[in-house]
Amino acid sequence: MDEKSAQVFLPSRERCFERLRLARFGETVTCVHCGSNEVVKRGTTGKDAQQYWCKACETYFNDLTDTIFGHHRFELEEMFYTVKEMRSEPTAQIARDLDRDYEAVLNFVHQVQETSGDIDEFELSEVCEADEIYVTAGEKGRENEDESPRERGLKKKGRGDFEGDKPPVLTLVRRSDGRVRFLVCKDLEDADEDIAEYGDGSVILCTDGYSIYEDIEEKEGVDGHLAVTHSDTYVIGDAHTNTCENRHSFLRQWLAKFRGVSKHHLQKYLNFLALKLNSPENWFEKLLCYNVSG
Ligand SMILES: [Zn+2]
């Protein structure tokens, strides 16, 4: 099979629009500006999106207005394909599949990743876990993922910080529903403050015995602290970080697929991973109906 014939199968454009409309509007289209249902169809856009006229606020909008798919040069089916594939394929591969400009695809991927973080915000409450993991992610990832042509700099020994290309990631889990948030840090000096910021005041935090978590219960946002040492043979009641360790294994497996992610984009990648882990059934629908205008 030569390269020309190695074409990918894209979903039909009409099916994509139907799915987008259903996720956004349900059965009745309402105005994205004022919420009125006094809406009439008024032709289509150059991208085949249905256009609407709102009689109440006298404004036009279309299927793509205020979605993650607005303001991109791609067809909707190409963007659906990208969002599905970015779960496991490097951006360069997706760009090749679509025969599209790499930078443009990368911009879209980054926007989806950033939006994932906005969709998935939640507070820590009651019993939660925190644990740290070091991820190898340097400038090098840029060369693979952003394909910068410049030469790789002197390789530094990983010292477990952002500068040393081993950024620490704090993994926070709310035990009641297993939701996870990943925080990429410059270092772990202020880990207690970084964590406490997300607490609602009721948090009982389970961590390992690492000194960065010491006295975290004195921070606003956190109510109590259970520290376990790794030498403990048994998990005592709530005092464990097993859920974090489970999420870490997903994180490692997932990042391995990308053959190196730039540390400058690591947070965005992990936002997307968190959305998938937190909403395994409906992460795609959540992206479809998210209003990017805020
Ligand atoms: Zn309106």
Automatic annotation (TrEMBL):
Protein's recorded name: IS1595 family transposase
Stretch list, region Disordered: 138-163
Composition bias, Basic and acidic residues: 139-152
Domain ISXO2-like transposase: 123-278
Pfam families found in the cross-reference section: DDE_Tnp_IS1595
UniProt-listed SMART domains: DDE_Tnp_IS1595
